[in-house]
Specification:
By secondary structure, this protein is of the alpha/beta class. The protein has helices at about 15-25, 45-60, 60-65, 75-80, 105-120, 145-155, 170-195, 215-230; strands spanning about 5-10, 30-35, 65-75, 125, 160-165, 205, 210.
């Protein structure tokens, strides 16, 4: 039987970390890809390596599957964006009804570049942590968007890519539960210590759920999910 490989869009955040563990449990070879797009919370790129190292240290079976990491410079996206994720701006809702943390085209570009790398690497599965259950309303995180992009990628490359979205229909509490199911308390602790979600890039404050300012929308989602998961036992 031929090897089945996956490329995980791994930002360094909680959701993509859970997806990386999910992929390592299912595929024969797993590579990761990240993007430097001038994000305000660039610290997420710094924790990526620590999380990967933690996986290889604590999970021998996964270490054998974990392959190359790719980090692409997409600074042009930050240069053409005017958002609270790419500039020092107060987080608020825009006239469109979306939060100004929405970076137009971000996931579309990420998956397109990931597809180009996967094509070269002979990888058919793209894994991303987008979710429309417990999120900020970003249109490029919706299931319809991802399905349409999968069709476009396959038509444009004459390939048969599959975009896997393990978190699409679950909330943050269920993401924490999935993390424990996949790797026990060791993986939960690794996610707490060595992933980053805070939009402000704050690594100075440690909470039960991880590091962050504790006030931005990303911290609020992560914290509320953790509290609901803990309450559920």
């Amino acid at each position: 039987m031929s090897e089945i490989a996956a490329l995980v869009l791994f930002s360094g955040g909680q959701d993509s970390a859970a997806c990386l563990a999910w992929a390592l449990e299912r595929f024969d070879r797993v590579e990761t890809i990240g993007f430097d797009y001038g994000q305000r919370h660039r610290v997420e790129l710094e924790v990526r390596a620590r999380f990967r190292e933690g996986l290889t240290e604590h999970f021998a079976a996964w270490a054998a599957k974990l392959g190359e990491d790719h980090l692409l410079d997409l600074s042009v996206l930050g240069a053409i964006s005017d958002t609270a994720l790419t500039a020092e701006a107060e987080i608020a809702f825009s006239d469109t009804g979306l939060p100004n943390t929405f970076v137009p085209g971000r996931n579309l570009l990420f998956l397109t570049f990931a597809g180009a790398v996967a094509y070269r690497r002979g990888i058919k599965h793209l894994v991303t942590g987008v979710c429309e259950t417990d999120y900020s309303g970003y249109p490029d995180c919706r299931d319809d968007t991802i399905k349409a992009l999968q069709v476009a990628l396959n038509l444009g490359t004459e390939s048969r890519f599959v975009i896997d979205t393990p978190l699409m229909w679950i909330d943050k509490a269920a993401t924490w539960a999935m993390t424990r199911d996949l790797g026990g308390e060791a993986l939960v602790e690794l996610v707490i210590e060595d992933t980053h979600s805070c939009y402000m890039g704050d690594r100075t404050r440690r909470h039960p759920w991880g590091y962050g300012c504790g006030a931005c929308p990303a911290c609020a989602l992560r914290a509320s999910g953790f509290e609901r998961w803990m309450a559920a036992g």
